Amino acid sequence: MSVVKFFAFILLSLSANTWAWSGMIREGGVSGGGGNVINPQMPTSTVDPEEAEHIVKASAVYTQIFFAHAKAQFANGEASSEILPVYKKLFSGPRDLDTVLQNVRPHVRESGPCYDYNMQPVDASVAGSLPNRFCVSAFALSRKVQADQIPVQAAALMAHEYTEIMGLDEDEAVMIQKQALQDLQIVNLPPLSVHDCGDSN
Ligand SMILES: [Zn+2]
Asked: Which residues keep their CB under 5 angstroms from ion ligand 1?
């Protein structure tokens, strides 16, 4: 193991531990193909799940924006040393992320949670019988997340699921989700066209 690799490994281990200690791993990290929102701001009033469904579907655009931003940062050598090994797997691995983004779409559930491979309820999951679909629960998001935060939380959650579909592990998916939460606060986001839902079911 080279010094650089070893250092990156230490950084990864440290950050993973930090999340575990802060209790965030419970909220964000669930093994078994699922994912949950991380540090949501609890809603003061809940959004109607059907409205949340439209918002979540439209938020897939933000997931694409995050990945494009991340890919550019990776290409320009601007990624942090912490996230770099994960970007390397995502953007220069054997599978093409853009193809996956084009072909695999969220199946947004209006009622009930999604379920992971262990049949545990989660906010989103790649476990399911629909081909080229992963589950996102608009119902869960509407109950856990402040309305104005649903788009960014949903987009980050979907980035988590795409990362798992790309073959990366749970810790890496949580790192991507956290990076997306962070980046999507900074980058310029176009307003969501919530009625332009398309038919992603
Ligand atoms: Zn996961």
From this structure: 35, 170, 173
What is the C-alpha to C-alpha distance for residues 41 and 43, in angstroms, rounded to an integer? 6
Q: What is the pLDDT of residue 25?
A: 37
Three-class SS state of 145: coil
Q: Report yes or no on 2 lying in a domain.
A: no
Residue 168 CA, ligand 1 centroid: distance in Å: 9
Rounded distance from Cα 178 to ligand 1 centre (Å): 12
Residue 31, domain member (yes or no): yes
Structure tokens at 94: 């054997």
Tokens representing 149 are: 């935060």
Integer Cα distance of 41 and 39 in angstroms: 7
Query: How far is the centre of ligand 1, averaged over its atoms, from the C-alpha of 32 (Å)?
Result: 7
DSSP codes joined into one string, 12-54? HHHHHHHHHHHTHHHHH--SSSEE--SSPPPPSSPPPHHHHHH
Mean pLDDT across 25-31: 45
Does the residue 194 lie in any domain?
no
Residue 78 domain boundaries: 26-186
- For residue 92, how far is its CA from the centre of ligand 1 (angstroms)? 21
The pTM (predicted TM-score) of the whole model is 0.81
Q: How far is the CA of 185 from the centre of ligand 1 (A)?
A: 22
CA of 68 to the centre of ligand 1 (A): 21
Confirm whether 201 is domain-assigned. no
Structural domains in the chain (count): 1
Dump pLDDT digits (tens) for 42-60: 888 888 989 999 999 999 9
